[in-house]
Structure prediction request, 433 residues.
Amino acid sequence: MATIINADTSDGLKLTSDTSGEIQFQSAGVVKAQVTSGGLQDASGVAITAQSGKNLIINGDMRIDQRNAGASITPTNAQYHIDRWRAYLSQASKYTVQQSTTAPSDFNYSLLATSSSAYTVGASDYFLLAQPIEGLNVAHLNWGTANAKTVTLSFWVRSSLTGTFGGAVGNAAGNRSYPYSYTISAANTWEKKTITITGDTTGTWVTTNASSIIIYWSLGSGSSSSGTAGSWSANYYDSVTGATSLVGTSGATLYITGVQLEVGDTATPFEHRMYSQELAMCQRYYHKGNYAFMSSSATTLMFNINFPTQMRATPTTSHEYPEGGTVNDVYNIATAATPTFVPDGNFSDINGYRFAYDFDAGLTADDGYQAFFYFSAEL
Amino acid sequence: MEYTYKLMVKNLGVVRSDGANIPADNANTDYQQYLKWVAEGNTPEPADEVNNNG
Prediction:
């Protein structure tokens, strides 16, 4: 029978502490939350505040895949695949990546990496999944100062292999890293992993619109980039010594989703953002669209593409027609001609893409054209 | 993948050999790659000459 405390007046219920000023909320004898002179806090003393915006990872639930729409690709080094997710590799064609619909409860998508062969990792090899984080989004962590905040990384993982796996948190300069390990106990079973990382009080951590913190998950790393879990190093590490190598087993799979990086030493429930919010966050780094525009002469296209959100930097632009078709082609809506248009100049900034001209182009003046444009301001 | 580059007119940026237009923005990582390529001793193709047709 539960014990119920009822207010017996019309003035509500008041809990008053003793002279310590503290009130604790316990479950099974363990403190879960508390009120102190600092306000409402979790068990470790971290302020309990609004949960919106707590996740510093973008597209941690792998919902958005603008480039490939779920198709599998064999990535090249430093290639982005699922939005905000990047592959790093020292040898080509050792694994594929794709958005998968295999997911744990409360999620609909995951990032799937599949080993393409049984490759023995060399000392300097690396095969990684990663997400770089823009400095503007992590400046409040105060990393590189005495006030560096502790963060907690949590994620769901599933693999056809069991054992100890590795990863790391590092800076963009590659001279600070914190290797971490996690254990997959059962094959082909979703497991949630939590890693708490003490904030780095030294090193250079970018606080501008450039790359700052990079989170790595290793699919196989050589001894040169494998360190000891659980402490900061002035070396570049992307995994831990002795970790399982996914690329060492042909057909081996690793799924990841529900990735969250948050302030504090406790993993809280994943922040499920609205799709439109998550998409806009991705579009700061990459977006694409099918656009129509006019030619003002045989060499000049007139358009004004306003970006759906302000981009991180003035983006690299490419176009083609049709989508997945011939790079640099544009489509004449009136004649169905597809002249090649390689801009000798274009005008754009972080807010939009303006007109462009190609002195060699064979356009027809004052015709309507169409093309698929891709804008990339990735880290 | 090893790219080559061609300058755009008016220092607007460069055209990469895969057709991508890269603005002269130091925060753009593709432009950073171009600057690194130049620093390694490479030279981009010159820009097309401006004429009166544009």
About this structure: Residues 180 and 230 of chain A are 6 Å apart (CA to CA). The mean pLDDT of chain A is 95. Chain A is about 0% helix and 40% strand. The longest helix of chain A spans residues 275-283.
